[in-house]
Amino acid sequence: MTNEHSVFQTLKAAGYKLTLQRRATVEAVCAAENPMTPQAFHAVISQNHPEIGVVTVYRTLDILKRLGLLCQFQLDGTAQRFKAGSLEHHHHLVCRCCGEVVDFGRCPLELETTLEKETGFRITDHRLEFAGVCRACQGKENQGPQSFSGNTGEPE
Ligand SMILES: [Zn+2]
Ligand SMILES: [Zn+2]
Ligand SMILES: [Zn+2]
Fold first, then answer.
1. I need a surface site. Which of 11, 19, 48, 61 has the fewest CB within 10 A?
2. Is residue 25 part of a domain?
3. Does 95 appear as a known binding residue?
4. Residue 30 assigned ligand-binding role
């Protein structure tokens, strides 16, 4: 898990000042469980800091992105969403129903090597994302369309 202090440290090491705006954005990003759009982050941040504009949030997200501190998601032409992520190379499983994201570190690197051999490309990066329905949402699907009677005891 990424905590805000390690993000602050990475920012400082890269020469960025820890302004209030940046701090507030980092805190919002680290607190979010599921990926959110920059606008959604701005909405959260402006609850405590109404003076921080959406452009500032965009800029800070941009810095975090460049430093490799964010995971990016874009499913089916939806707006780009972000979440704090580990610096280590990893991939995602994304639930189409609730937006839950699971990180996994296993990576089909042999395919990269094979592709390089076959095509002559020197591959420098790749993205791999699986979309589907998480276990919790599958359970809901089995209950049929929104049963109002059987919803007690559901954690959530
Ligand atoms: Zn991730
Ligand atoms: Zn789900
Ligand atoms: Zn990979």
1. 48
2. yes
3. yes
4. no
